[in-house]
Amino acid sequence: MARHPADSTVIAEVLEGWLGDPELESNAVSFARALEYDERDELPSAGIERVRGFGTHRYFVPERLGGALRCAEDLLMLSRVIARRDMNVAVSEGAQLWMMLAWIGGDADQQAEHAATMLRGGVIPCLAYSERSHGADLAANEFLATPEDGGYVLSGQKFPINRGRTSTHVVLLGATGDEDAPAKRLQSLFLVDRSRVLSGKVDGIPRVPTYGLRGCDISGVAFDDARVDVSARLGAEGEGLELALRGLLITRTFCTGLSLGTADTMLRTVAGFLSRHTLYDGPASEIPYVCESLANAYVSLLVAECQSLVAMRGLHLYTEEFSLWANFVKVQVARLIEGNAAVLARTLGARYYMRAPEHVGTFQKMLRDGAIVSLFDGSEPVCLDSVAVQLAAMAKARRQTRNDDWTLLYDLGAQLPAFEPARVSVFGQGRDATFASLPALLRLLGEARLSDGCDASRLTALRAEAAGLSEQVDALFERISAARSWAAAQAAQPSASGKSTSPRLLRLAEEACAVHAKVSALGVWLHNRDHLGGFFADGEWLQVALARERVHHFEVGDLEPATARRLFTRMSEQLTAAEFFSIRKVRQASPREPEADPNHRVTTVPAYRRPDRTPVLH
To answer: Among 157, 219, 340, 534, fewest CB within 10 Å belongs to which?
Structure first.
């Protein structure tokens, strides 16, 4: 079924109304309550229940199975709305994303059963891949799933994992093969309903204190000769590692919603405080250094949003190409937001060290919690390594001309086919639609017409920056082609590690991630300037982004004063209007808006924009 993506912004606005203003302490998912739970290292149960009352669990179940999952952007926007309030709630409830593995690897009966349980609100899954001694090296796991009497006996521990103690279902990898099995076929994937373990024991492992996400259940789970039916296995025996990696490609992509949510609150908190704080006879935000820093952070957030939105659309259209794409977007969006966090901390000055009543420690909490995004579902080095080992295939794929119509990928108003998670593949053969679209984007830019805000001077500058981007991409692929000798030189060095990826290849992978974000932003601008209009269509924000040598990095004095002022003004307008910092108009809860009456049921969000943004309740 085709679906209009504007529905996703409506869903976000309705959830905003359901949760109310996070500045209002009495709301279940407020900044004040989030910090209280955090201080006690306690799971924010009231906030989780509030979110579940909206029916978020339905958005993790495909529509064909009775759920509400039709569009990948829905999940992006839902996580963005929740994460801007409390990452502990977002990460705890977002664990349901791991049920995607049932839609990827399960048979029809398994899918129907798990969908029904989820729709009743009866699933709290955890992803149990990591083992204490092996971390990201999943192939080295020691957990056993021994075939016996038509079922399996599970033995071993998984740690550290989210929701280890408090989960109802466990998604895990276990060795089902013997020592003669190839390493890639040694493990199978299981989705274990803890209430249906036939014998033996399943216990939680105590949670570990953490730097951020202090309210999350970061713990473990231990299986002691736990017998399960064969129906607990997803996919074929020995297929576990491939299924696990396919699931990670989807979840890595959706991590961007968490980054965007924390980024919004960090920028909103700092900009709001500094606009109210008097320094040198005026608002601190008017200090040129502060004004430019906030303006640059705003641009970085817009670029992160563009790369995220294009990735969501890519999940519908180019699902088989995400062995690269998922890693590009996870690494770069996190880098854009972490770069912002560092700059905003400096801009906040001494207040960064104070848990002042003006922001009840909200900035510091978001700074701590948001740092997890570059770590889980594959840390940044793991994702970069995944890109690095595919660079040669990527260079080969680039030599094949593609004549796709890129409109569906970039036009945010274009309808999309249904999202089909089962199509995701770990064998992308070096293909990436975003890079492949660049020649067509350059031609489109060459044909672009002037507009009220984008005059001849601006359009000329954009064409020059885009030409520079093209040269940057060409140079990147030239270095990739010459990189074979680096890999050989690295392999020749004595090492006790089985991982031998050259650091130079990792550096090229970093560059590819950054350039990918620039191409995404260019594509979004070209295909939406006519109908989004205004500030977005003027293109000044894009010119700033393309001019950066590394899109996530900016220096003091990079911007012309007039440019900094216009960007700052637009950011301030969205701040004052209670809108997300976004290329689109997406309204947040009104100031002092209480959460909606929990006795009212949220119905399916309509496929049109309600002019008053009133939650659909009755």
So the answer is: 534
